[in-house]
Protein 1
Amino acid sequence: MELALITGVIIRVFRAVVLTNGDATSSYLVAALVLGTLFLLGMATLHLGRFPVREWPWRAPLFAIFETAGEMLVSLVLIGLHREPWGTARAEFTDWQPMATGVVFWRVLAVTVWALLLGGTVQFVRGRVLKDTGRDVDPQTLPDGQPFIERRKKDAF
């Protein structure tokens, strides 16, 4: 879960920098939102790619929760330094709980929907495209029926 915590820290610092040091034009804010979303979903993809697809339904929300924890810890520090933007003013400690609630809702929703779309795509490619090309999709299976994929390079001895 270190990857999720690091993602949360980077996203919160990025948000604070964007909202305090940039132009408040809509194109600037939309570009920052797109960049932040791509980073979040890219890191979630990197995390989920290390596990079988069948574990994604519980790993994706867990990633989002840990990412939110990282974000909210940075938020507490920024509030203590009077640097956390909240609307047109600076956030206070009483604003932290509503901020955390909103962040956890949107992160869990975004990462879970992304994991469902990504998992569906992976299953489609494995089930349809690879079978249609005649490639061997499932060369070996483990005792529980899960496909075994060798990711290590074989020695040339």
Note: The beta strands are 85-86, 89-90.
Protein 2
Amino acid sequence: MKKLLFLILFTIFGFAKMPVVVSVVPEKIFVEKIGGDYVEVSVMIPVGSSPHTYEPKTSQMIKVSKAQLYFSIGLEFEEVWLDKFANQNKTLKIIDISNDINKSISVEHHGEKELDPHIWVDPINVKQIAVNITKALSLEDKSHTAYYEKNLKIFLKELDALDAKIQSILKKTAKETNFMVFHPAWGYFAKRYKLKQLAVEIEGKEPKMRALIQLIKKAKKEKVQAIFTQPEFSDKSAKIIAKDLNIAVIKASPLSQNWSETLIELAKAIAHKKS
């Protein structure tokens, strides 16, 4: 009987997963790559929702109240909610996994310049994110440090392979090639691979007709071949431009569950390569 009780307790406590909360789906991918069997990751902002306006549901706040770690990444959502999460869960440790990344790209949002938070669209940035996650998990759960570090090495190799694949796809693409986006979320991707993104939205809003006409002229001059839109934002203006230029509107979200595949498809579209 005692032996059976021991086995039950070992099963419950020996394999208990660390409850972790993240802001967006790509973070979940990264944390699970490192934490594997020892983490249970909850996402605050579901795919298809805007990080600028999303409000957590009651069920999500319950997850926060039970979490040990919250991995933040510099989103506007976090500026509003992190203090509330900390007040709800006094033992919650909030870790900024964007530390030690050069945040050099700013965007216009509602008339103000702000740092582009989408650092994870650059696979090399994700290498530092992975290191930061590994450090945090190892500090919180020292008994599995070797496991986390082993997973880190594997993931870093995967990221190098992803970077190499994207470079290969874009090998014959001219430097400073322009691609058009509605919401300027791909700046770090563009910087890494020496491309330029042209944003359709102006100060976080749909452009008015005069600005739209100027965008169409610029897109023609720059020989833009595709416009990328996100499910989180309207694509009305993008469709107008695409129709005038007779080019494709491609749905691609930096919040995608298929994070690495999205980056590859983005590169292929810019390089005019078929999937």
Note: Strands lie at 18-22, 39-43, 69-72, 93-96, 106-109, 112-115, 177-181, 195-199, 226-229, 248-251.
